């Protein structure tokens, strides 16, 4: 194998050589699996932590560029060492323990956020074949849904362990928002599962002769918007609104425990970008370049889209956020499932199956998505989609009290 061929699928080739080396030593199969897991975890961490550091720097520079601000530019060239300076800063910050708080829960909550986010990378395929993921489970989608839900428990533990009314209210708001948006996210992925006929992540990538975003534009939009709410990112970041609940569930956190929450949120952002890349953007597939480079490029493209929305959209009220999930995203996700199921039946029975190019459904699905979004948005506002109903000023003042209805409101 040439050097270029080796680099093209680096993750798989390194694991293959490592497994062959271990088997050549005559080790037990269980020990080979264990040591293979160690090298796989090492490779994933070598991808995750540098990428998260770049995310932290890129977010400040990108948003600064959009908002005509310089961003970090003092620590190192172009401010590249700013994340390192932040890490050194939190290392020396005092860790404050609330007097009446539960110290054990206070420690477990950020650790659970951090490790549950890392566990999700186990089923994300970075290369071709069964060795492209650390563990190529045939229930990969279910694994992601199950492990991802652990974050809900961690956030409530953070608020409860703080024994602070603001932190507890912030945690309850976070739990309500996360559970509400997990439903449309799962329903959005079901459309892809119907097309592929499998829950295995590598199978989903393998079946994408074209990126599924072309076949599932509505599913992509629902999943992406739901993910923004799950990540507490603008414009759906009411959970951490400083002006309302003093930053929410981690009000009492400082030092490295706060940094662990901060790092866990960015790792979760990377997880969402990798899932979107795998499920909707054909994963590592692409011409000419190494497969891992295509994968990383698509992940950064998704992250830049998140930053663009954060820099341009204003924060939404909490009642609007909840109504948007239950009255807008979930009905559209259910409609998308029925439409996709009908298309699968038509394509399998009357045409040549999903292995060929399904060009008719590309145009149909984009048109249907545009029409549904337009029509349902009008219905959404008619249903009182997150609007606070306020009585007219004239009606309030016309009740009496000797007040002139036409007078200006004090």
Walk me through the topology.
Elements: H1 3-8, H2 10-24, H3 29-66, H4 82-91, H5 103-119, H6 140-148, H7 150-162, H8 165-196, H9 201-206, H10 212-215, H11 217-230, H12 242-245, H13 255-280, H14 291-312, H15 318-350, H16 359-382, H17 393-397
Helix pairs in contact: 2-3, 3-13, 3-14, 5-7, 5-13, 7-8, 8-11, 8-15, 11-15, 13-14, 15-16
Distance between the termini: 80 Å
Strand % is under 5%
Share in helix: 55-70%
Number of helices: 17
Let me know the number of strands: 0
Could you give the order of the helices and strands?
HHHHHHHHHHHHHHHHH
What shape does the CA trace take?
globular
Assembly status: single chain
Largest sheet: none
Average of the residue pLDDT scores: 83
Radius of gyration, CA atoms, in whole angstroms:
24 Å
Report the uncertain regions: 388-394
Please provide a written account of the structure:
This protein is an all-alpha fold and 410 residues long. The chain has one domain (83-382). The protein is 68% helix and 0% strand. The chain has 17 helices and no strands. The chain has helices at residues 3-8, 10-24, 29-66, 82-91, 103-119, 140-148, 150-162, 165-196, 201-206, 212-215, 217-230, 242-245, 255-280, 291-312, 318-350, 359-382, 393-397. Helix 8 packs parallel to helix 15, helix 11 runs antiparallel to helix 15 and helix 13 packs across helix 14 (291-312). The longest helix has 38 residues, at 29-66. It is globular, with a radius of gyration of 24 Å. The protein starts with a helix and ends in a 13-residue tail after the last helix.
